[in-house]
Write a structure and sequence with these properties.
Blueprint lengths: L4 H16 L5 H21 L3 H18 L4 H24 L14
């Protein structure tokens, strides 16, 4: 469960977006966070980690729920549900609790 280069990029990037939130409007920062999470998701998928890619896609939904509020309780439910799904997928993938669905190389080995 060690950190790799993409984890370091995500920590620095989210930290920079948090710092930018003091200067920029919240909707703009949430949109930038969604785009950043989408790029991290594609990096994870390209790197052979589909569960982590799905976790980052769930967090894209979290960021989009901040930009495009559905309204009332539904907006809150979408925000927290996608946040928790992403967290569960990331922890499950890192802990080895989720099945291996992406095999690099010969599958018969």
């Amino acid at each position: 469960m060690g950190l790799d280069r993409i984890d370091a990029v995500s920590i620095v990037g989210v930290g920079a977006l948090i710092a930018a939130s003091t200067i920029l409007e919240g909707v703009l920062v949430a949109a930038a966070l969604g785009g950043f999470a989408l790029s991290l998701s594609s990096w994870r998928l390209y790197g052979g980690r589909p569960w982590e890619a799905l976790a980052w896609l769930a967090w894209v939904v979290t960021a989009v729920s901040l930009v495009v509020p559905v309204g009332g309780a539904m907006s809150t439910v979408v925000f927290f549900a996608s946040l928790l799904v992403g967290l569960g997928l990331l922890i499950g993938a890192r802990a080895g609790l989720l099945p291996e669905v992406w095999v690099v190389g010969d599958a018969t080995e």
